[in-house]
Design brief:
532 residues, mainly beta, Leucine-rich repeat, LRR (right-handed beta-alpha superhelix), 15-stranded parallel sheet, six-stranded antiparallel sheet, 25 strands, elongated
Amino acid sequence: MPNNLAGMLFLLLIILKETGLTAACSSSCSSDCDCSNRSLSSGPQYLPTSITRLNLQDNCITTLAQSDFSRYRSLITLDLTSNQIANIDNGTFSNLHLLKYLWLSTNKLTNIQVGTFSNISQLQVLSLFSNQITNIQVGIFSNLPNLEQLSLGSNNITNIHPEIFSNLAKLQKLWLNSNQITNIQDDTFSNLPQLQYLTLHANHMKNTQLSTFSNLPKLQELYLHSNKITNIQVGTFSNLPMLQVLSLGSNNITNIHPETFSNLPKLQRLYLGYNQITNIQVGTFSNLTQLQLLYLYSNQITNIQVGTFSNLPRLKNLQMQKNSLGSFPTRELSMVPSISWLGLQNNQMVTLPPAAYEILSSIPTVEVYNNPWQCDCRMVGFRQKMNGSSNFENQIRCTDPLNRGKLLKDINPEDLTCDPTTILRFEREKAQGQPSIETDDEDLEYEDVVSPSHRSHALLTEGQNLEDSSKEGYEVPSIASSNIDNCQADYQNAEMFECEPIDTHEYQSINEMEMENEPIDNDSAHDYLTLI
């Protein structure tokens, strides 16, 4: 008996399941009829005439005829996605006066006749995504005054006539991505006062006209990535007061004028990755007080100028990985304390100044791996600050021959040494005052100097050597530790010259050195020495 009962229950479940599936696409279905994936070749004629939603996805329909939907006058939603529709007869939707949502995506349409959508004035959403449309005729959308969303992405459209969107006063979102568009004519979008979202990414545009986006007062998101844009004219984005997202990544941009983004007070996200930018001019981002995300990765940037990130009080995410940065932008990053995610991996940085530790340790997410870190005396100050509390300490892996493969955190600071054959460079300078230390790095204090290979300037009075001007507890070697020989210029006649040190203690101070058999000019008030 138990076995018989189990068998009967199993059979009942099968019957209920089959009945339910049939009811979903039959005369007994409710207002929402699901006829998807049934190998239908045309619109079914046996459904209740009062239905409001009809799903015909994933069928085999090739042509839409006027008789297919004429009996379903209450339809609000019609989904014809993923069929094989190549033709739509005029009048197909003429009786669907209440229709608001029409999906024709992923079909085989190559052309849309004028009048196809003429009697569905209540339509709010129209998707023609992923067809084979090559041309949009003027007038196709002229009778859709309530249209809010229009998708024309992933087609083969090459040109957009300026009047195509002229009667879409309520349009809020427009997809034109993944087509073959090479140029957008002036005033194409000028009659779309409600437009908030516009994507033109993955086309073949090389430039944009000054007036292309000039009359879009409510535009919030603009996507232009994955084109072939090489230059952006100043003023292109000047009349977009509500813009929050601007995507310009994956283009061929090499230079950005400082005023390009000057009139975007609401901008929050700016994407400039995967271009060919070599330099960011000071002032480029200075008016973007609402900016939270800035992507500069995968460019050719070699240096970040002081002031580049000034006046960005809300910046949280800064991505500069995969560039050619040769030094850590200490001062620039100190101006943006709000950062919570910093990407500097895959650059060309070789050392980190001590001041970099405080900056990096204050940022929750840091990526600095895959840089050619040189773990020598220049890293002593930074290494001494490491305490194992920050994850980025596990990313600094040495590439110099002596410590290749080791993590900086695992090396004793006393073992971070420099090659004694470091080049010395001298400059002559007239000055007054006591001995002092100046540096190329404005953030490098006297206490941070670790010689001989740390790049620093030591200004010495006549007769004094580096050892005399050092401070207790810091290693600043004297001239006597490595003699100067093989100078490349006459000290009397050159502003700068390079010499190669040799390992001898013959000379005890600058006065006593001889260069090219010429004595140093003792009439000079000061001599300027640079260790590099």
